[in-house]
Design brief:
This protein has helices at residues 19-31, 71-81, 99-110; strands spanning 3-5, 9-16, 37-50, 53-67, 90-93, 96-98. The protein has 112 residues and is α+β, with helices and mostly antiparallel strands. Strands 3-4-2-5 form a 4-stranded antiparallel β-sheet. Strands 1-6 form a two-stranded antiparallel sheet. Helix 1 packs across helix 2 (71-81).
Amino acid sequence: MKIRATRTHRLVLVTAPGVEVARKLAVAVLESRLAACVSLVPKVESHYWWQGRIETAAEVLLVMKTTVRKVRRLAEVVRANHPYDTPEFVTLPLNAGSDRYLSWVTESASGT
């Protein structure tokens, strides 16, 4: 397997209040060709500050694989389809990956 460095790919993390919302977000993102893949990780327990208090919630984590060029539009689609007032939207750079996988992400997110 050939591994190559990349500066053009990103992982995007978004949490949702449940699996139905997470699936809706995944479909919206994929139909818009803004990510190649959205993985849903159920049963995430989140602890966080909200409006001056520590809160706890059961959530679903969405892990989206995309390119730098798609991140801004991806954020817009998530915001438009997300029920939270302030949804989590965090991007992480990928340093390297399988050449075939990175090529697939690029092609799939661009619609070619």
